[in-house]
Amino acid sequence: MTATKRIKSGIIFTLALLLTAGAIAAALILPEKLIRSEATAEIGHVSAVPTAYYAGPSEAVVKNASRQLTEEQRLSLIYGDWESTISPASESERSLSEYEAVHLQFPIVSEYQHWYTWNAVSYKAVDTTFRTYAAIFWKCTFTKYDGSETYVFYITEGGTLLDEKKLPEGL
């Protein structure tokens, strides 16, 4: 091997060694510098938390807390004595099916003169302070087979008939 070839291969080896050492040094140093610069950029910066993060108590918490209410407290929620909002209740929030709610106070009679069609809609009254307590109630509508008579009544899931005059308008 000639002297010039040896010098060329020495230079190439040295350059390769320097490039490798530089790549290793960059891989070790650059992530720390990047993380440190991002962290210092966010120090002292305050931003508003999106309202979606304040979802309130979960459905399981509400169900458990609501089971501990007395019937009188449920009525206070429904009638608005205890500050509350009323909205439709989902199937997972209630403990009765439509059929069970309708037949709490109105058993089906098979005689022809008592044939009715029925419809049941569930509502929940939720306290406005912590949104932790809920009372479920039903609006049950019965229509005689020929449409000549219609009966509407409101009932709690515990079987208590509600006074329609005390309920908020629009239900």
Task: Give the tags.
171 residues, 20% strand, 4-stranded antiparallel beta sheet, elongated, alpha+beta, 37% helix
What's the arrangement of secondary structure elements?
Elements: H1 3-42, H2 59-67, H3 71-79, E1 84-88, H4 98-102, E2 116-127, E3 134-144, E4 150-156
Antiparallel strand pairs: 1-2, 2-3, 3-4
Notes on the protein architecture:
This protein is α+β, with helices and mostly antiparallel strands. The protein is 37% helix and 20% strand. The chain has four helices and four strands, in the order αααβαβββ. The protein has helices spanning 3-42, 59-67, 71-79, 98-102; strands spanning 84-88, 116-127, 134-144, 150-156. The chain has a four-stranded antiparallel β-sheet with strand order 1-2-3-4. Strand 2 (116-127) and strand 3 (134-144) form a beta hairpin.
